[in-house]
Write a structure and sequence with these properties.
The chain has helices at 2-30, 35-47, 49-60, 64-89, 96-119, 124-145, 154-162, 170-201, 206-232, 235-260, 267-289, 296-316; strands at residues 92-93, 121-122, 263-264, 293-294. With 323 residues, the protein is mainly alpha-helical. The chain has 12 helices and 4 strands. The protein has a single domain, classed as NCX, central ion-binding region (A middle domain of Talin 1), CATH 1.20.1420.
Length: 323
């Protein structure tokens, strides 16, 4: 029964995420927002709504392992598996701006999470600090992308791609956006509830569920976007949207969650997974900086690294005996 609840939650999250993006873009176009504003504030924020709804629901249900494990796990999947798989399809272009600005901010945010874990609590004070960092990142993106062409600005390119077609009515766009929020809320509830039941049935730790099953579900929309972009040759957009999503998760989603429902950080995450996330973020810098592209061999390396991480999680749960 639990797996059906999880599946229903995932389906609702996928549908709700797409509806929220379409409704948000439609409203922004109806009010004549600039493409850069649409790309930075509307599309990027809507892309992280699944993580926000699931994390908030898990936090309010008293499941910090699922809440924080989901964020750490989805970022690890995006950095290692999704980006590596995209590079296997087509080498991923990584402009210097994305490498130094976005990956740099992602690394700083990951290190901040590691330091926060020493205190054992994601408090409201930490939430305020994360949101201030998030605001600073948004300002930085606006400053550095303001006069760039779509070929050199990931948010602008995504906005132009999403803004094709006729401008919808305010009422129509609002209805789609509201429907998306409803589906996201229901999907988050089903996913968290199903994860808790699944973990109890199979005697698994809730944190492990967050790091694997929940994280995989949250990463699925990014995987689809990355694969489509790789097949179309829009690899610079693929890299930028993955790194941007990671920054939004670490600063925006965790910041809002900490303000609404402060969380105790599970020791399992503090001792290993947050550190692994920071190490993966640091390793990504030189991999992307080499000739400003992620080649197929380096993509294989990232996928193998994620396979090793999954093996570590399974071993830690006692599912994989040490040979």
């Amino acid at each position: 029964m639990a797996h059906w609840i999880l599946a229903a939650g995932l389906l609702l999250i996928l549908l709700g995420s797409e509806a929220a993006i379409r409704g948000g873009v439609g409203l922004a176009r109806a009010f004549n927002f600039s493409p850069l504003v649409i790309g930075v504030l509307v599309i990027a924020t809507a892309t992280s709504l699944p993580e926000l709804f699931v994390t908030l629901r898990a936090a309010t249900m008293g499941a910090p392992g699922i809440a924080l494990g989901g964020i750490a796990g989805t970022n690890i999947i995006n950095i290692l598996f999704v980006m590596g798989l995209g590079a296997l399809i087509r080498p991923m272009t990584s402009p210097p701006k994305v490498v130094f600005r976005d990956v740099g901010v992602m690394l700083l945010a990951s290190l901040a999470l590691v330091l926060t874990a020493f205190g054992g609590t994601l408090s409201r004070q930490v939430g305020v600090s994360l949101l201030l960092g998030f605001a600073a990142y948004i300002v930085l993106v606006f400053i550095t992308d303001w006069r760039r062409t779509p070929e050199h600005s990931v948010p602008l390119a995504r906005a132009l791609y999403r803004s094709q077609g006729e401008i919808p009515s305010v009422i129509g766009a609002s209805f789609v956006l509201f429907a998306g929020f409803i589906m996201l809320a229901l999907g988050a509830h089903f996913m968290v509830s199903g994860s808790i039941v699944f973990a109890r049935q199979w005697h698994l730790d809730e944190t492990a569920m967050g790091l694997t099953i929940v994280a995989a579900g949250l990463s699925l929309p990014k995987l689809i976007v990355t694969l489509v972009a790789a097949f179309r040759g829009q690899t610079d957009i693929a890299v930028g949207q993955l790194i941007g999503a990671a920054v939004f998760n670490l600063l925006g989603v965790l910041g809002i969650t900490a303000l609404v429902a402060p969380l105790k950080i599970p020791p399992m995450l503090a001792d290993a997974d947050f550190i692994i996330l920071a190490v993966a973020s640091a390793a990504l810098l030189p991999l992307l900086a080499m000739r400003w592209r992620l080649s197929r061999p380096r993509g294989v390396l990232l996928i193998l690294a994620y396979g090793c991480y999954l093996a570590f999680v399974a071993w830690r749960q006692g599912l994989l005996p040490l040979l």
